[in-house]
User: What shape does this take?
Amino acid sequence: MIDARTPLRVLVSEGSSTSGREAVTILGAAGHHVEVCDPSRWCLARYSRFVRKFHHCPGLRTDPAGFLRFVEGLLASQHFDVLLPTHEQGFLFARAEARLKPRVGFALPDFASYRAVHSKAGFSRLLNRLGLPQPPTRIVASLDELREATRFPSVVKTSIGTASRGVWIVRDVGDLNLALYDLQASGDIGGELLVQDLITGTTEKAQSVFCRGELLGFHAYRQVSAGVGGGEAVKESVSRPAIRGYLEAIGAHLNWHGALSVDVIMPLDSATPLLIDCNPRLVEPMNAYRAGTDLVELLLRLSLGETPAPLAESRAGVRTHLALQALLGSASRDGTRRDVIRECGRIAAGKDPYQGSTEELTPMRLDWPGAVPLAMTAALLLVSPQFASSLARGGFGAHLLDAASIRMIESEGFC
Assistant: This one.
């Protein structure tokens, strides 16, 4: 058996997401040989000195079968110790486990368990079965049902969606009509929709790693300030025993193997955290890494077939930020050029909310090429702050799934 503490050859399944880019930094800093495949030639991971080789591949969304064949070709032509799915590629890899396992190590649950939490409707039903708290939720199958089920204020969600796609805040009839129009225009009315009561509170996230149903690593953080699309610009690690207990129950029920993350609302009028979303992967693992919990290394060891000892609890109060998200968030909130310049100054000077915080997405002192996308984004925002809003509305990359690609992967003859 290979010792995961020695350098490994790791194939990262995409390089466009913030989660994938942060995983590359952690892997590279540990001395592992990192290669990345992605349908975008200019993905975030291209701007990293830790990426030894980039592989331009078919899109998971546009050609899942072609993407799978491409990955199989890489695994057949050269040796990799670990295949690391950092985003929705895990859905495909879990489906094709029998084809991939003989060639490379990876840590994923069986496909049925993965499907159970990949869709928002499936996750909501799972929470009901386990008696775990969530906002009052209605699941509907048509726009007419959506109209009847919505009470103001609510959050409307498509059952499939990530990176804040397919989510509408509905406070009145005008908001509801806009959501209905967007759903009709996008074609996202073929599946189930969720309507959840809008709960006032703070947003938090928790990440975990399981070994066949046993929780081995856990980390939680709260959102200090928001970026574009509701993502975190500044976050701070917290201790959340209750949320840890929720994840233990979910992981044990599904016999989960690998990474599992949840989004949580901490209501202002209650001490009970409410689960609102689930991602069967690690989400931006750098804050956990800075707080002393290396969930990426834990995944490597699981991928090699080891059964590691549980990690100690991460440190609370560790603050990190994503400067790129902070700039986009500032501009998207009707910001001006002056607002963008002011935000740049606060980040550079380490002023609140960046005081005592470290950069997690583009850590230039550790990985200097990360300055390139940050500088390009800042320049575009100075030319036109509206770029941030158009970026948030502009769809999503070919490295992500949609309803059609999911149906294809789930089809009987796919594997």
